[in-house]
Every structure is written in C-alpha cells, then in structure tokens.
Amino acid sequence: MRFGAVVLAMAVVAGACSGSRVRGGAPIAVVAAEGFWGSLAAQLGGGHVRVHSIVTDPNADPHDHEATAADARAVAGADDVIVNGVGYDPWVDKLVKANPRQGRVVLRVGDLVGKHEGDNPHLWYSPAYVERTADRITADFGRLDPAHRADYAARRTALRQAMQPYRDLVASIKAHWSGTRIGATETVFAYMADALGLDVVSPAAFMRAVADGNDPPAASVAAFQRQLMHRAIDVLVFNAQTATASTTNLARRARAEHIAAIAVTETLPRPYPTFQAWQVAQLRALQRALERRAA
Question: Residue ranges of the domains in the chain?
Fold first, then answer.
C-alpha cells in the first residue's frame, strides 16, 4: 500500500476516535517505532500500558521499513508514540502528523538528547541516552495517567536495578580495555564504543556508506582490508542485520587473520526478553573477544 493510502486509512480511523478521551481505567496505548524502545516502555508501564512495537523483525533492515495500514491503525489509536528520530524513522512522524489526537504524547528521542538529522541515529547504543529516555517515558506515563504515577516511579527504580548488569559490563570493559582498537562495519555501535572508551579506527567513509545503505568507496574497502591484514584492528564489530557483500567479506577476512568478529544487531532479536538482556549478551561477547585477544 502506498504511503498516501496508508495516511488516508489512518485519518478515517482517527476521525472516529478524536477528541477528549475518557481513560476509564483503560491502559495507555503506546506505539514504539522500534522494539528496543518498546521493551523499555513495557517494563516501565507494566499492566498500565499496552505496547505495540512496529519494527521488530531481526532479519529486516529497519532503514527499509515502509508504513503499512496496520501501522497506521496502531498510531491512530495511540496515546503515546515513541519515535527514535534523527532521520531513522521519518515514516512515523508522517503518520502522527496526519492524524492529531487530543492529549497524545510524542517522544522523539533525538530531540530529547539533542541529536539532529545527519547525526548518528543509533541512539539506543548510548547508555546515557537510554537512561534519559527511560526517565522521559516514566514522566510521560505519569502525565497521561496521574493515578498511577507512583507505580511508574517504582517501575523506573526496578528497571534501573534490572539494568545494573548492563552498566557493570560497560564500566568493566571501559576499565580494562579503554583505548583498544576496534573496527566497525558501520556506525550502529559507535555510541557504545565511545562509552566503552574503545578506539574505532576503521575508515569513516566505509562506515558512513554502509550505514546509509550505499556501497562503500573502493579506497575505504582497500584501507579496511589493509588494517585487518596488518592487524591494526584488535576486534571487528559488524552489524549482522544489515550485512552486505562488503561487510561479510570483511568479517571473513578478520577471522582468517585470527581477529575476533563480533556480531551486533540493530533491533531487539526475539530470543531476548528485554532490551537489557540483548545488550548484556552483546557486551559479554565483546568482553570474551577482548579477553581472548589478551591471552
């Protein structure tokens, strides 16, 4: 279905339910553009919210998502919409703007953390941005549902405790491996690498091109291959979800040079029940690779 038809379909739905809404004990209808933000919202809201995440397929490239009629219906009925922003999911903004809803809260994470289109959009890989987003989601739930504000605050405390292993791993890797040279096939891991104190030395032109869905310049491919051949990279981090021939070849070359190649994903894979479980698993894989390098 073309986007215009999707917007029209949603406008019809929204027109039937616009105006002031009486809660009557109904849960807050939350739509998260991506599953990682939806996971946080579900943990922070518990039984007081009903969360629908749109982009959840771990085998699909989130950059290629096109809005569907089902997406339109979900957004039309949402009390709270969580958008990554920074040019990552512009289709959500189009759906939201096409159908205003009285009292709806829209959280654009990029705006919250001061990022704009053209900046690295992979905000959920920044521990600091995740904390700020969780705080804002909690506050938004409290505004939408003041009767349960204390419950949301308690759930924020519980989430902070549940994420302690995640924070501990970040601190431990930074303490032991800060300054370690890593390669990255694109920018998805850049915020986390910065939080860990790791030195991303792979060609910037290669990472930008892959992140933008373009073929990397030949010179950047050759430079990346030389880094691997001369072991100027200690660990390679590659985005398994947006793999291309170029990135797959680099991962193969890294392994041939006995350089650990660690896969990360852009969205929350189904085997992991929560955002933090997913991130902890990836950080542990990185930690093991760093330990093997030093052995």
Answer: 3-162, 165-294
Distance from the Cα of residue 79 to its chain's centroid? 21
Span 165-294: which CATH code? 3.40.50.1980
CA-nearest of 200, 199, 193, 247 to 225 is: 247
pLDDT digits (tens, 9 = 90+) for 83-137: 999 999 999 999 999 989 999 999 999 999 999 999 999 999 999 999 999 999 9
CA angle 118, 121, 110 (to 5 degrees): 90
- Answer whether 239's CB lies under 8 Å from 185's CB: yes
Q: What's the CA gap between 94 and 114, in Å, rounded?
A: 21
Answer whether 115's CB lies under 8 Å from 123's CB.
yes
Please determine, for residue 1, whether its predicted confidence score (pLDDT) is greater than 50: no
What residues contact 196, with CB distance under 8 A and at least 6 apart? Answer: 170, 173, 174, 177, 178
Q: Is the pLDDT of residue 66 over 60?
A: yes
Whether the predicted pLDDT of 5 surpasses 60: no
